[in-house]
Write a structure and sequence with these properties.
The structure is a homodimer. The first copy, chain A, is of the alpha+beta class. Chain A is built from 4 helices and 7 strands; from the N terminus they run H-E-E-E-E-H-E-E-H-E-H. In chain A, the strands form 2 sheets. In chain A, strands 1-2-4-6-5 form a 5-stranded antiparallel sheet, sandwiched between helices. In chain A, strands 3-7 form a two-stranded antiparallel sheet. In chain A, a hairpin with a 3-residue loop joins strand 1 (about 30-35) and strand 2. In chain A, helix 2 crosses helix 4 (about 140-155). The interface of A and B includes residues 75, 77 and 103 of A. Strand 5 (about 95-105) of chain A pairs antiparallel with strand 5 of chain B.
Chain lengths: ~160, ~160
């Protein structure tokens, strides 16, 4: 509903979820911090100057946006968001967390697949200034954060 | 977990959810667009210049943040977020929607109760400039939006 993906859209998140290594990014799978039957989460390709190690969550099945996503995914997404937020607190020692989800081009969405953005927050992080002007994160940086966060998530118990 | 509410915190959202009219705001209940056994949603007291009629969703039971909230609320929150986003599309004729959820003071949270912010989005709405510098919305404006949205939500069917 209210879809914007072009015909034959080459969804970049589909490659990550499917475990396909693209030639231009041979380290894709090393960025994944969590995967189960329904959801996959990884260290985002873009970040903010003071909120590094931010994570993307998507569903393993392709839905374009909030209007399309079956709401029954909600509890799984909520549980994983909470787990990752607690991971940020524990591993990054951050001061807070912010969750953002955009829909449609004029709603700030730029990949045509429903996804949730999770940011670790810090005192004086100037989030208001940078939140919508992301910068690229290097593969090395992303893998470093992924390793740390993955260790925590793998050992997570309620 | 990671709580910041002062002792005996007079939670402003508790009054809305409980249906208590405060003397300084006698029209509180007219702002509610949806209420069921678990969740309440209303037109927010603060808005952005080009994203008016924005909505807050909270749980009827008080939880401070994402870390505290039982994840089982996820599907209910997802379903209501979707319903309201579709309401924005239908009633406001907006071009997109953005969902934001903050945790802890340094994470941008300012009311110590878990809540989700839903914004209608428009082409060239300068959301990046205004998103974290909200302005007050008048009661008249809020009631006007509440009436329109409520009519849609009451007649909503999958």
């Amino acid at each position: 509903m209210y879809n914007h993906a072009p015909k034959n859209y080459d969804c970049p998140f589909c490659a990550i979820v499917a475990g396909i290594e693209k030639p231009e990014n041979p380290t894709l799978q090393a960025l994944i911090v969590y995967r189960d039957r329904y959801l996959t989460a990884w260290i985002a390709s873009t970040t903010l100057p003071h909120n590094r190690g931010n994570v993307v969550i998507t569903t393993n099945k392709h839905y374009e946006n909030l209007y399309d996503l079956p709401s029954s995914y909600g509890t799984k997404i909520q549980a994983l968001s909470r787990k990752i937020a607690l991971g940020f607190k524990h591993v990054y020692k951050c001061d807070g967390t912010t969750v953002i989800q955009h829909n449609e081009p004029d709603g700030g969405q730029s990949v045509w697949r429903y996804h949730v953005l999770l940011f670790p927050r810090y005192k004086d992080d100037n989030f208001d200034k940078y939140a919508f002007s992301p910068i690229n994160a290097s593969s090395e940086e992303r893998i470093r954060y992924a390793r740390k966060l993955k260790d925590y998530l793998n050992s997570f118990h309620e």
